[in-house]
Amino acid sequence: MHWACERCGERGQKRYPSAEHAQRYARALDREDSEDLGKRAPLVGLFPLRLARAAMKRRQKTRR
Questions:
Q1: DSSP codes joined into one string, 25-59
Q2: CB-side exposure of 24: number of CA atoms within 13 Å?
Q3: Cα torsion for 37, 40, 44, 50, to the nearest 10°?
Q4: What is the C-alpha to C-alpha distance for residues 11 and 55, in angstroms, rounded to an integer?
Q5: Least crowded by CB within 10 Å, which of 44, 52, 61, 64?
Q6: 23: closest CA among 41, 1, 6?
């Protein structure tokens, strides 16, 4: 499969075991980020929650 980035102009190629594999990866890489808007939570927004959960788990382990 040959590819070219519309944003930065980079180009490249990669071999896949079959045409079906190449099409699968091409579809996955060819979608816009805006298609998933609202379906994925931003990493930055979840970071404080992850820290709080990690701290709670740590406290629970130390109490045992």
A1: HHHHHTS-GGGGTTTS--HHHHHHHHHHHHHHHHH
A2: 7
A3: 160
A4: 44
A5: 64
A6: 1
4 contacts: CB under 8 Å, gap ≥ 6: 10, 11
pLDDT given at position 32: 67
- How far apart are the C-alpha atoms of 16 and 3, rounded to whole Å? 13
- pLDDT at position 47 is 77
What is the identity of the amino acid at 55? Answer: A
Domain of 22 in residue numbering reads as 1-32
pLDDT digits (tens, 9 = 90+) for 13-29: 888 899 898 888 888 87
- Predicted TM-score (pTM) of the model is 0.38
Q: Considering the domain boundaries, does residue 25 fall inside one?
A: yes
